């Protein structure tokens, strides 16, 4: 007995084009997820590379310069590192404190240190949130894309079984095209999810290292400010 011929439309594009409306919608949604994920990964990796380079340079600058005013002036050339933002937030408050101090009085008191600690911490938190902006989309893609693809696959298989019932035949020629088209959705879901998960973990690890540098710099900056407490203006 001859085996019925399978449809010649076996190419990926033919399978996508021959899929039902719902499967096509699922594939389009997954394509959008994938494009946005790759765009976020590329942007964040390039940005983090600049941040890491400037962070190291600014840390060296901070200990090289003897005066805060010199560091502040040089910080204008560091547009990406969060260390410059943290330093300038403290420097602006220090400048305001010095201007408001009475002549001959200590311009910085011990009780002022808690306020400076809060200012520095707030600036660090804002910079951490800026670093993490849009990274959550990668986690969302990694968690949901496989299930969206699976939904498209299940829908496509259901459509194939309805076609079997309508044609009154259940052979390879009838079943194979519909099943193949449906499985493309699962493959697309994995293709969207895997790079997103890998990119998310890689970016989060690098952000964690930068956050550690921010915490170390914040402690160093607060220690330097603390040494100024009680000195005459």
Mean pLDDT: 84
- Uncertain regions spanning at least 5 consecutive residues: 1-9
Oligomer: single chain
Number of helices in the DSSP assignment = 7
Helix and strand run: HHHHHHH
Structural class: mainly alpha
Main sheet: strands, sense, barrel: none
Strand content: under 5%
Q: Report, as a whole number of angstroms, the end-to-end distance.
A: 102 Å
Number of domains: 1
Shape: rod-shaped
- Alpha-carbon Rg, integer: 29 Å
Description:
The protein has 233 residues and is an all-alpha fold. The chain has one domain (21-228). 80% of the residues lie in helices and 0% in strands. The protein has helices spanning 12-17, 21-64, 68-74, 82-100, 113-132, 135-167, 172-228.
Topology readout:
Layout: H1 12-17, H2 21-64, H3 68-74, H4 82-100, H5 113-132, H6 135-167, H7 172-228
Helix pairs in contact: 2-6, 2-7, 4-5, 4-7, 5-7, 6-7
Jot down its keywords:
single chain
Task: Summarize this structure briefly.
The protein has 233 residues and is an all-alpha fold. The chain has helices spanning 12-17, 21-64, 68-74, 82-100, 113-132, 135-167, 172-228.
